[in-house]
Amino acid sequence: MRTSLLFLLLLTCLLVVVGNVQCNPNYREALAKSLLFFQGQRSGRLPPNQQITWRSNSGLSDGRLANVDLSGGYYDAGDNVKFNFPMAFTTTMLSWSTIEYGKRFGPQMKEARAAIRYATDYLLKCATATPGRLYVGVGDPNADHKCWERPEDMDTVRTVYYVSSNNPGSDVAAETAAALAAASIVFRKVDPTYSKLLLNTSQKVYQFALQYQGSYSNSLGSAVCPFYCSYSGFKDELLWGAAWLFRATNSVYYYNLVKSLGADDQPDIFSWDNKYAGAHVLLSRRALLNGDKNFDQYRQEADNFMCKILPNSPSSTTQYTQGGLMFKLPDSNLQYVTSITFLLTTYSKYMSATKHTFNCGGVLVTPNTLRSIAKRQVNYILGENPLGMSYMVGYGKNYPKRIHHRGSSLPSLAAHPQTIGCDGGFNPFFHSFNPNPNILVGAIVGGPNQNDGFPDNRDDYSHSEPATYINGAFVGPLAYFSGTN
Questions:
Q1: What is the pTM of this model?
Q2: Most buried one in 74, 176, 247, 443, CB count within 10 A?
Q3: pLDDT tens digits along 379-415
Q4: How far is CA 121 from CA 109, 124, 233, 413, 419, in A?
Q5: In degrees to the nearest 10, what's the CA dihedral of 289, 294, 297, 303?
């Protein structure tokens, strides 16, 4: 029999209290730090108000090999490569967070918009620099992953990758369109001109994705695989992109596209690769909040997704650790936890607005059911777990000290002005057991294993590497619970 969630919560709180870690997370503090993390991932010329000061300018000549300016944007994780597929998803999720929970961001709204704009400025360059091309990445990942050097010292080849009519990439293009469309809603009132630019570019990029269909994994091969292969294909991104453009425009054209693309997949996961569940929840809003029966199928699919997540549901396909953490896959599991938790809070919000409930077999699901599971995941990440470990760097007293991240693990330019070459970072820095010299505040790492264990080893990238898309999905739930303290 499954241990009741309430008992698990009480037991974990007891363990955490014994470990001298508060069993009452400060969501506002965590929200501020989760956004600060993105400053540590910045590529390009850093703005004067940069707060993570151990970082400096980097990648200023990105795009030069194609005679275009592709400086800016974010490094995806602990490496020095700009992969646009996960970067665009991160941007979409940050934008969705501000759209859903903007009133709860408080003073962090300015930081949220800055984090989004740092990405969209770059994505706009990628979409408009050369007619007929969408640039989708900078930096040879195979060369980069053989090095351990600061982004400021990069001497690996900054190969430029793009998709086109001859080498399509519907997945990365449609995700880029989703990011720009979602961001256009964020900036609609505060910067209408920028918002229109985002939306117009989004529509053009989406048409490209639709007209020249194919997976970017097939077009670019080892430049994106196995790093960010599009394992789920591109139909989910076409639906996701159309759903966001429909949200941004309310156009019949995108409504018809959404309906024609259908929803033939019923996943139990949501991630940078598989967008079906996110699209279902996004579209369910029309059924629940607008009473539009044309969207009932998406409400039903969102209900079905939740039934696969909830621990007491007879149709659940989701494993939970003894400490209560959702466990989907061994590599960087927290990316799935944060993304699914976003859907839990958001669908709970939609359900609350209309007093919607549903059944998983004989189990009645209310908005509070989803909210409780979501809160459990958020609190676990912030330290309410058997180890009393906060998986957000710089939050709480006990957090990962040896994260798999080049800039964090190597001395800053101020501390070590001499260049550290490709191989120079491995000894003594990478292989050292000392804590990282630079604290990447707000970074959420890959997380514990299925036994709630966490070794805190720099070379254990599947558990100790942070990534933009882990944080990008976590901002929304933190904002949601910040408003309910």
A1: 0.95
A2: 176
A3: 999 999 999 999 999 999 999 999 999 999 999 999 9
A4: 18, 5, 27, 26, 29
A5: 10
What letter would DSSP give residue 256? H
Q: What is the mean pLDDT of residues 222-243?
A: 97
Does a structural domain hold residue 317?
no
> Tens digit of pLDDT for each residue in 26-69?
999 999 999 999 999 999 999 999 999 999 999 999 999 999 99
Please report whether residue 1 resides in a domain: no
Residues spanned by the domain of 214: 41-262
Half-sphere exposure of 390 (CA within 13 A, CB side): 25
By CB atoms closer than 10 A (0-12, 13-18, 19+), residue 155 is: exposed
DSSP 320-374: E-TTS-EE--STTTHHHHHHHHHHHHHHHHHHHHHT--EEETTEEE-HHHHHHHH
The residue count of the chain comes to 485
Number of domains in the chain: 1
Using 50, 70 and 90 to split pLDDT, how confident is the model at 2?
very low
What are the CA-CA distances from residue 266 to residues 146, 274, 388 (Å)? Answer: 38, 11, 35
Question: Most distant CA pair in the chain: distance in Å?
Answer: 65
Nearest to 188 by CA among 201, 175, 197: 197
3 state SS of 91: helix
Q: What's the CA gap between 437 and 428, in Å, rounded?
A: 12
Mean pLDDT, to the nearest integer, of 106-117?
Answer: 97
Q: Which residues are catalytic?
A: 404
What distance in Å separates the CA atoms of residue 238 and residue 269, rounded to the nearest whole number?
17
In-domain check, residue 314: no
> Token pair 């490209």 is at which residue?
208
Calpha distance 233→261 (Å, rounded): 13
Other C-beta atoms closer than 10 Å to the C-beta of 473 total: 31
> For residues 15 and 9, what is the distance between their CA atoms, to the nearest angstrom?
10
The label of the residue with tokens 């990008």 reads: 472
**Which value, in Å, is the radius of gyration of the alpha carbons in the chain?**
21
pLDDT at 264: 65
Confidence category of residue 266, pLDDT binned at 50, 70, 90: confident
Q: What is the pLDDT of residues 288-325, one digit of tens each?
A: 999 999 999 999 999 999 999 999 999 999 999 999 99
One-letter amino acid of 330: P
Segment 222-250 mean pLDDT? 97
Q: In the numeric block, which tokens belong to residue 181?
A: 């469309």
Asked whether the beta carbons of 230 and 238 are under 8 A apart, the reply is no
Do the domain assignments include residue 392? no
The CATH number given to whatever domain includes residue 115 is: 1.50.10.10
Q: Which of 300, 290, 321, 292 is nearest to 450 (CA)?
A: 321
